[in-house]
Amino acid sequence: MIKLITEIEESIRISAESIWANKLRAFLATLGVVIGISFVVLMGWAISGLDKALQDSINLIGEDMLYIDKWDWSGGKRWKEVRNRKEITLQQARDLISNLTLAEIAVPLATTWNAQVKANNIFYSGLSVAGTSADFGRIPSGDVEKGRFFSYADERETRPVAVIGYKVAKTLFPEEDPVGKEIKIKGQKFEVIGVVKRQGTMLLDFIDDRIYIPIGNFMQLFGGEHRRSISIGIKAGSIDRMDEVREEARGLMRTIRNLKPWQEDDFSINETKAFEEIVSTFRLYVWGIGIGMTILSFIVGIIGIMNIMFVSVAERTKEIGIRKSVGAKNRSILLQFIIEAAFLCFAGAITSIVFCSILVFAVAKLLPKLVPETAFLQPFLPVDFVIYASVVAIFVGILAGFLPALRASRVDPIESLRYE
Amino acid sequence: MNGKNISKDGQPLIDLRHISRVYQVGFEQVFALRDINLQIYPNEYVAIMGPSGSGKSTLMNIIGCLDTPTGGEYYLKGINVSEFDDNELAEIRNKEIGFVFQMFNLLPRASALKNVELPLIYSGVPKSIRLERALKSLEAVGMADRISHKPNELSGGQRQKVAIARALVTSPSIILADEPTGNLDSKSGEDIMKIFHRLWHEGNTIVLVTHERDIALHAQRIVRLRDGLIESDELNHHRVVFEGVNE
Question: What is the 3-state secondary structure (H, E, C) of chain B?
């Protein structure tokens, strides 16, 4: 055991020396590995950013939120069947909300996309307008940064008040406080009473580009639109209660929609899990491309390392002979060259980790200034991927070093001592 | 008779019985050694002489456990090593043999100290003890002030001294020197021969392979090879004696 440790120590020392003696050659030889490791690490970085973006989105929507909707978020259900479902009317939504007993909060939510507003002599289009109830102010996506959310009284009396999203505020009132200002939606005046906190994530960037108004006002403006369907946001209160709340909502909804026991639900109960599914598909693409590239560059890397190790063995035939003459066993020589290859790859991994760290730091600091959607990128590498990369590099080294090391171990000491 | 008496009592250190070594060259068999019978006892100083092609290199390789005979048996300290595999031979070389080569054969990138330490690495000696023994060994050849020099920073004679220190460091049973002065000027050569002489006096067994008569004359016994056979094996009556070295 001591013998093995001594030999490994010696091998690492020799490796460091021989790499140092041939710096440029070692660098060129490890280029393939450096690129391969860079792929692994950068891929891990992108994925961990994506996971963070997902988590942000989940936190934004609320992990304990259920959304009853005509549409299915995950897109898993047959599109045609979903499209042919009857719309959920405001009355059905209200019936459900008033009959729910287990949920903490339930709000109706009606949305129109591609609306247009005017304020400050600016026309702003492409944003969404949502009609909801005062309780929306109590769920995470209704968190107000300035002013207030509208009240039950506002809602009851259909006062023309609006709470605007972060991006809307920035666009319409870049320099001033939007609270108290007037905006026109579909020609009708609304008073801005609050600004929702900035929430945008990569997956839900539209959320900052939205105006909330009381649902009564919404129905007056947009209620007549073709096939308007209302969704119902339900906050269960805690994750543990999700199942009960879901079952209660489903039962009530089936009664409200007059479904016979043998009929399938003609509505969907959406959860944040749907986002996880979307992200996991995306993640699969990243992995697929990343792994393909990684394997390719590792193959190039292995060939590079193997080649340089064969050269190294040939150059050091005499050294092998000397070592054997003083008692190195074949196994010791094998070990020495495998360790050398592994060490070479490990040095490559370190190079690539340093390089990627600088790159990632620069990108995460600079890119979001140009493309705000990339704000989810973190300025450091994920530690677990740095560890995987190093382990993979060492493994690649062992793989690439094996054949050259085997050749070295079989060198005949008599022949090699004569070698000049 | 000069020098110490040879005691032939007890077990020989090296016992070669009917050793032959055949090389296959194409379809032809070449006999490098035909039928060698040779016993070397502890603390002998033996020179193996012969012209090139006489088989002395092959014999040295077999005695040094770098090669195995194709026929006959080789007992080293009573153990039959002629059937050993590569790894067993490596272990024997590590423990029992100290090589000194004509070309020095030091690792070019390693310091004198690291070179001397090398055999101890392969026997798994812990670092501190390794260092201590390597230093002692370098001291014994008068190279204690050159321990961090690399081979290319040393003269030929100094390199050979480092090589001797490396051969001594494991306290081997045999010091096997192959033309140790072949690449040295006569002054350095004499220094090296003095060291061998002293080592012999300190109780070491030395086998010296050479084709030079002047060098062989330092030994106590001379074995002459010709065409793979022992031509003569006799005590040396014309020994070179160094001044200041106690007989």
Answer: CCCCCCCCCCCCCEEEEEEEEEEEECCEEEEEEEEEEEEECCCCEEEEECCCCCCHHHHHHHHCCCCCCCEEEEEECCEECCCCCHHHHHHHHHHHEEEECCCCCCCCCCCHHHHHHHHHHHCCCCHHHHHHHHHHHHHHCCCHHHCCCCHHHCCHHHHHHHHHHHHHCCCCCEEEEECCCCCCCHHHHHHHHHHHHHHHHCCCEEEEEECCHHHHCCCCEEEEEECCEEEEEEECCCCCCCCCCCC
What pLDDT does residue B2 have?
A: 42
pLDDT tens column, A247-272: 999 999 999 999 898 888 888 888 87
Burial label for A358, CB within 10 Å (0-12, 13-18, 19+), is: exposed
Chain B residues in contact with A10 (beta carbon < 8 A): 121
Percent above pLDDT 70 for chain A: 96
Which chain A positions have a beta carbon within 8 Å of B94's beta carbon?
Answer: 326-327
Would you call B105 and A327 a contact, using CB atoms and an 8 Å cutoff? no
Chain B residue numbers touching A17 (CB-CB < 8 A): 109
Listed in sequence order, the residues at least 6 apart from A157 whose beta carbon sits closer than 8 Å to its beta carbon are none
User: In the prediction, which pLDDT does A174 show?
Assistant: 84
Is it the case that residue A383 has pLDDT exceeding 80?
Answer: yes
Please list every residue in chain A whose beta carbon sits closer than 8 Å to the beta carbon of residue B111: none
pLDDT of residue A400: 92
Q: Give the Cα separation of B188 and B165 in Å (integer).
A: 16
B85 touches chain A (CB under 8 A): no
Higher pLDDT, B240 or A324: A324
Instruction: Write the pLDDT tens digit of every residue in A68-117.
Output: 988 887 766 677 788 888 888 888 999 999 999 888 899 999 988 888 88
Whether chain A has a CB inside 8 Å of the CB on B107: the answer is: yes
Find chain A residues with C-beta within 8 A of B109's C-beta: 17-18, 21
Residues of A in contact with B90 (CB under 8 A): 324, 327-330, 332
Give the residue ranges of chain B where pLDDT is below 70.
1-9, 243-247
Q: Cα(B58)–Cα(B43) distance, rounded to whole angstroms?
A: 23
Please judge whether B105 and A332 are an interchain contact, meaning their C-beta atoms are less than 8 angstroms apart. Answer: no
Residue-averaged pLDDT of chain A = 86
CA distance A284 to A72: 22
Separation between Cα atoms, residue B205 and residue B137, nearest integer Å? 17
pLDDT at residue A58, as a whole number = 75
Nearest-Cα residue of chain B relative to residue A319: B107
φ, ψ of residue A330 to 5 degrees: the values are -55, -40
CA distance A10 to chain B (A): 8
pLDDT confidence of residue A226? 67
Task: Select the highest-mean-pLDDT range: A288-292, A295-299, B165-169.
Answer: B165-169
Q: Inform me whether the C-beta atom of residue B7 falls under 8 Å from chain A C-beta atoms.
A: no
Predicted local distance difference test score (pLDDT) of residue B245? 55
CA-based diameter of chain B, in Å? 56
**How far is the C-alpha of B123 from the C-alpha of B130, rounded, in Å?**
10
Whether A231 shows a pLDDT value over 80: the answer reads yes
Name which of A321, A322, A329 is nearest B87 (Cβ-Cβ): A329
Residues B103 and A417: their CA atoms lie apart, in Å, by 9
- What is the number of CB-based contacts under 8 A between chain A and chain B? 71
Inter-chain touch B99–A325, beta carbons under 8 Å: yes
| Contact criterion met (CB < 8 Å) for A327 and B119 | yes
pLDDT of amino acid A14: 81
Q: Which residue has the tokens 């020589």?
A: A333
